[in-house]
Structures are given as C-alpha cells and as structure tokens.
Amino acid sequence: MPLEFLGIAATDDGPETGPRSGAAAAAEPPPELTVAHVTVDDPRVEPLLRELAHEYSTRYGRSADRELNRYPAEEFAPPHGELLLLLKAGEPVAGGAYRRYDERTAELKRIWTHSGHRRRGLARRVVAELERSAAERGYRRIYLTTGPRQPEARGLYLATGYTALFDISADPETIGPLPFEKGL
Q1: In the chain, fewer beta carbons within 10 Å around the N or the C end?
Q2: Residue 96 belongs to what H/E stretch?
Q3: All domains in the chain, ordered by first residue
C-alpha cells in the first residue's frame, strides 16, 4: 500500500517576481515545468512523501506514520480529488492535492515544494492549479489547515487570498491546526 501524504505544507514561498497578471498567470508554470496529474502510487510521488515525512518529524518531533496513513489514496483522485506534481526535467519539484470536504468544498492537502526549489513561487502555482481544477469540478470553496509550526505555509495562504478562520494575533501553538478558507 503506498504511503499517503502528510497534512503539512512545506513551502517557504516568498514574493513572486517577474511580469505576471491575474490568477491565470499564477496558474501557468514556466515553460521548463510541466504539470503532471498523478495518483498516489506514481513513483514520482515518493520523493514528496519522503521529504514531507522528514519535515513533519523535524518540525513536530514525532513520527509521521499516523498522518501518512490518514486518508485513502482514492480521496486524492478524480472525480472528487486531484493530485498534481510540477516536474522539471521529469523530476518533481512541487506538488499538492485536494480531496472532497463536502459537496461544495474541496480541502487542499500536502502543498509541498522540494527543499532545493523553494522561494521561486512554485507553491503558489500549485495552489492556483489546484484551485482551478477544484472549480472545474464544481467546488465553490476551498478549506485547508496547516500546522502551527509552518509560518511559511501560513504566509502563503494569507498572500493568496485565504481567510484565516482563527485569531491571527494569537500564538499559533495555542490554536493547533490553523484553518483557512477561500471562495472560488
């Protein structure tokens, strides 16, 4: 049975640079990148899982096994879900997924950027592509949570139009998982 993704967003994306306009521009990867719609058992997903597991255990000081096996693989596959990777020369550099949360809501999970490719806007592109796909499947809202020890993920979601469903002035460690939402 393939490993499931972690419920964390290891992104560290900073401000976008270069000429871009609108959500469509954000969703288009540079020409050297390709978007691959894959399943959890695709071998290109394994590096994502491995790095997420390491990041999770490093930040939270515990094994990722429980989170790795939290959701069945089919939840991240059509018709209700999606898993995608951004590939550079065939190698995964970023990825993410969504699953059905309820009839109108998709839940983003596992937004990830390879540690060697961070601060290039790739997580923004993954989020934009997942939002586009979710909207095409009829979802009208995105919901997600991120961990309290992931300030770069929190910054990404706030910078891309998500509304925090918690007091952003509170210490994240006192809140637990940090919920966000965005209308599509």
Answers
A1: N
A2: strand 91-102
A3: 22-183 (3.40.630.30)
Contact (CB, 8 A) for 42 and 145: no
pLDDT surpassing 80 at residue 52: yes
Q: Please give the Cα distance from 174 to 34 (Å, whole number).
A: 39
Candidates 183, 184, 164, 166; CA nearest to 175 is 166
User: CB count, 10 Å around CB of 156?
Assistant: 25
CB contact set of 141 (below 8 Å; sequence gap of 6+):
104, 105, 106, 181, 182, 183, 184
**Chain mean pLDDT for the chain:** 85
Most confident of 6-10, 18-22, 42-46, 66-70: 42-46
Q: What single-letter DSSP state applies at residue 100?
A: E
Question: In 124-142, which positions are buried (b, 16+ CB within 10 angstroms) versus exposed (e)?
Answer: bbbbbbbbbbbeeeebebb
SS3 132: helix
Write the CB contacts of 130 (distance below 8 Å, at least 6 apart in sequence): 82, 84, 96, 97, 98, 106, 108, 111, 142
pLDDT, tens only, 63-91:
877 776 789 999 999 999 999 999 999 99
